[in-house]
Amino acid sequence: MMARLEGKIALVTGSAKGLGRAMAVSLAKEGAVVVVHYRSSRKEAEDTLAKVKRFSPKSVMVHGDVTSEAEVSNMFKQV
User: Fold this and answer.
1) With contact defined as beta carbons under 8 Å apart, do 34 and 10 qualify?
2) How many Cβ atoms from other residues are within 10 Å of residue 27's Cβ?
3) Residues 6+ apart with CB under 8 A from 37
4) What is the pLDDT of residues 20-61, one digit of tens each?
5) What pTM does this model have?
């Protein structure tokens, strides 16, 4: 049976902790490849990525400041 989000990529901003982390894990459980984003919480983002990869092994982590257009553009290039 195919997961609802199989073949989809989800970039979850602020996914290092809290609600963002919960959303990233939920999306991975539904089959999405998740892009875990962080700005300053690298350790927490690494922990989130480890949880996400249990369900979506192709998921990755990106760093960036979402208030900077150049950094947001760079995040999308990494995906």
Assistant:
1) yes
2) 25
3) 11, 12, 13, 14, 15, 16, 20, 45, 61, 62, 63, 64, 66, 75
4) 999 999 999 999 999 999 999 999 999 999 999 999 999 999
5) 0.90
